[in-house]
From TrEMBL:
It comes from Caldilinea aerophila. The active site is at residue 73. It is an enzyme of class 1 (oxidoreductase). One of its GO terms (molecular function) is shikimate 3-dehydrogenase (NADP+) activity. It comes from the Bacteria. It catalyses: shikimate + NADP(+) = 3-dehydroshikimate + NADPH + H(+). One of its GO terms (biological process) is chorismate biosynthetic process. This is Shikimate dehydrogenase (NADP(+)). Gene3D superfamilies: Leucine Dehydrogenase, chain A, domain 1, NAD(P)-binding Rossmann-like Domain.
Amino acid sequence: MAEPNYMLNIVGVFGFPVAENPTGVMQNAAFQVLGLNWLYLNFEVEAEHLGNAVLGMRAMNNFRGVNLTIPHKVAVLQYLDEIAPSAQVIGAVNTVRREGDRLIGENTDGKGFMRALGDDADIDAAGTHAVVLGAGGAARAIAVELALAGARHITIVNRSRERGETLVRLLAEKTPAQAAFVPWQGTYRVPEGTDLLINATSIGLFPNVEDAPDIDYDSITPGMIVCDVIPNPPNTPFLRRAAERGAITLDGLGMLVYQGAIAFKMWTGQEPSVEVMRRALAAEFGG
């Protein structure tokens, strides 16, 4: 008879606020299906207490890892023992995994997008021309991962010139990809020859579910890969309009699930069921 083990392995998210973060829904569903004695919890950590929270994590051997959300993705860097190469380029960490007594920072934001691109659309980013709408954290992570995967050219379209040009400089200095900034003034027309169009803004996120990026949708061509980072609702007006014009679409729910699946394996060493994770999140979102 096996010895009883009443110790849970803990993972979770540090952020402020975190009450509406649904990540635990999909992670706990995946733990349950595999019969793992693990639990994902939301931890409300204000900015001035992040260092103490990381120290607390270090002190508990069964605290196996953590996600970081606003406002901690950059501030956490100083408390870690190692930063993965792509996270170094991005300049932000959203996942911490534990190796013995060492805490290693990763960024799965862009990795989830890349896995959706490969697994769901069977697309290799190498040699592609991509247009990214936005220049915030999600845009930064996706653009870096695209560049590291061999994208030939990346256009950053953003209303803030400073933020857009900063991202383009980062890509030029840290990756082999060519990059250009285009100010988002009025309705943006997607240039001919674009392979990938990505909405990396929050336009269309619940509760503003009828909003869509201000682009010329007739400039979307059949066969173009059009992606939206918005997980709720998954089928955004942006994606619906693109599909009407013959585009292949990828939704943000899939990207969020793949981010979670990558973190799950980093923490547990096991592959989760992405189908179970997606169903759990879709049910939570009412889909």
